[in-house]
Amino acid sequence: MSDSTQPLLKVRDLTVTFGSHRRKLSAVAGISFDIYEGETLGLVGESGCGKSTTGKALMRIVEPSSGTIELEGIELTTKKGKDLRNFRTRMQMIFQDPISSLNPRRRVKDIVAEPLDCWKTVEGAEREALVNDLLSKVGIDPVAYGDRYARQFSGGQCQRISIARSLAMRPKLLICDEMVSALDVSVQAQILNLLEDLKAEYGLTLLFIAHDLAVVKNVSDRVAVMYLGKICEIGPSDTLYESPEHPYTKFLLGAALEADPDSPIHGDVLSGEPPSPMNPPSGCRFRTRCPNATDKCANEEPQLVEIATGHQVACHYPLSTLARK
Amino acid sequence: MYVNEMVEEASVHNRPERKKRLGLLFWICVGWIALNLLAAALANVLPLQNPIFQNYASVNAGPSLHHLLGTDDLGRDIFSRIVFGSRVSIEVSLGAMVIGFGVGAPLGMLAAYRRGKFDSILSSVMYVFLAFPAIIATIAVLSFWTPRSLLKIIVVIGVASIPLVYRVIRSAAMTVATKDYVVAAKVQGATDRRILMKELLPNVAPIGISFLLVGIATVVTLEGALAFLGLSVNAPTPSWGNMINESLAILQTNPWLAIFPSLAMCLFLLCLNFIGDRLRAHFDVSEGKL
């Protein structure tokens, strides 16, 4: 990386393995990336590629099998007990299902105040004021709706309440796990705008996990593409969308639909299914579906290498080098 | 964006909570149970006849003004014996449920929340116990653990009910424990104890309460069955079960002795089951949603 600033979050060789020795499934197979303060990193990939597991492993909801996670230079993977609980408040997470992420039997005010009550940071009138402030920031009227139960709200409103709750402890990093994919398109836009505003106001850094490429392009400064538990390409979102280097990225972008019905369908369609993560292919994990695969791809696993400033790709034959030949 | 927000605010219908009604029958049932409990508690001060006083002048009498529900073969007042008998049933069922829920419910919630080894070991043990029919087990233990007292009966039935309570509470808690809001609470740094009390318990409690009522009803029948076999409190102390047992020999001459205690038990059970069922439906947040 070119700049000298310390990344906010530094992830190295993170692996998450489920199951015991006989039936092992490596959902995340050694990924490394950095997130810099104030940026939004998009994480995309098809279903089952391990992007949600990555987010959960960062929060240590799922235990990482190996690797390191450093937040502001402090190692998180070895933390335990109260220390771990305390550190979780520096990072927060927003979930995919807005309805299920709020307890239906609790009042909205109490839900938003939950992190404050856990840590007793503020109490009494100050707590009340903070909760009201958070709720009005996300566009929920605290006077009219604050005393309602979570089950009385729509999906979009629930997601707003989730955002308010996650901001209560003023986290540095917000992990958004498919946070808009369960919402209507019109509501999606509102939530994304809200997120953008709050990001500026609270100085947040975002890890935006999603499968919707258009959404990710909109919100992200940089994008990482995952395939079968590995990162195959990371780069600034404009570069990555305009000139993808990894064949998988190209296929993924080609599969995204455009809003213009007259636009020609571009790119080839990827055939086949992703292989089972229980028994991943040797070498490059994408080689079984890659049109450019050679023997080298089967024998040697490609590492992430920097191909341009801030643009890394894990492929023996990046698309730009192929084109030159 | 504020315009957008207002549009959403206006278009989204915030459904006001529809007032759900429990219905008249529910309150009648509650009233009947309350009457039973009150009568059992105040049996000593109520103007009832002595339940063990034997009056040979009126043996096997039918219902009359003097003996509301008639007398048994020893001339004892059936009404007063039913009221005093309800004490045994109620004490045994409440006592047993305190033991059953006191041990089974926390273990079930903990197992559902913790999962892993703790859950699998505990669940296997509980399922082994469940494999014994509770009635056979209680009969076996009570036959040998003499002299029988009310406390021993409560302990035996209570212990026998632990695996059942454990299983019901564990599966109810399991559906809650996998919800995102439990993960969210963890993410916010809540302690395990706080998650169990604030997130799990309120969502498990409605199922727990209705199962508690069904459990009380089951124990009343179980005590009745034990008493019928002569394994409950000793004569002459009345209980619904041993009254029915005593009625066997004189069923042809005095059917009242069989009918009234059975009726008392039957009504008590029906009311409990109905209350439990209504409460479960009433507190079910998913029902009627969307």
Task: Note down, in words, how this protein is organized.
The complex is a heterodimer of chains A (325) and B (290). Chain A is an alpha/beta fold and 325 residues long. Chain A has helices at residues 51-58, 81-88, 108-119, 124-137, 142-145, 155-167, 185-202, 213-219, 237-242, 247-255, 295-299, 319-324; strands at residues 9-18, 25-35, 40-44, 66-71, 74-75, 91-94, 173-177, 205-209, 222-227, 230-236, 305-308, 311-313. In chain A, helix 3 packs parallel to helix 6 (155-167), helix 4 (124-137) packs across helix 6 (155-167) and helix 6 (155-167) runs parallel beside helix 7 (185-202). The model of chain A has no long low-confidence stretch (mean pLDDT 86). Chain B is an all-alpha fold and 290 residues long. Chain B has ten helices and no strands. In chain B, helix 2 packs across helix 10 (256-282), helix 4 crosses helix 6 and helix 5 packs antiparallel against helix 6 (150-177). The A-B interface holds A 59, 61, 85-86, 88-89, 92-93, 95-97, 100-106, 114-115, 118-119, 139, 141, 145, 148-149, 151-154, 156-157, 162, 165, 168-169, 186-187, 189-190, 193-194, 197 and B 1, 4-5, 8-9, 12-17, 179-181, 183-191, 194, 198-199, 202-203, 285, 289.
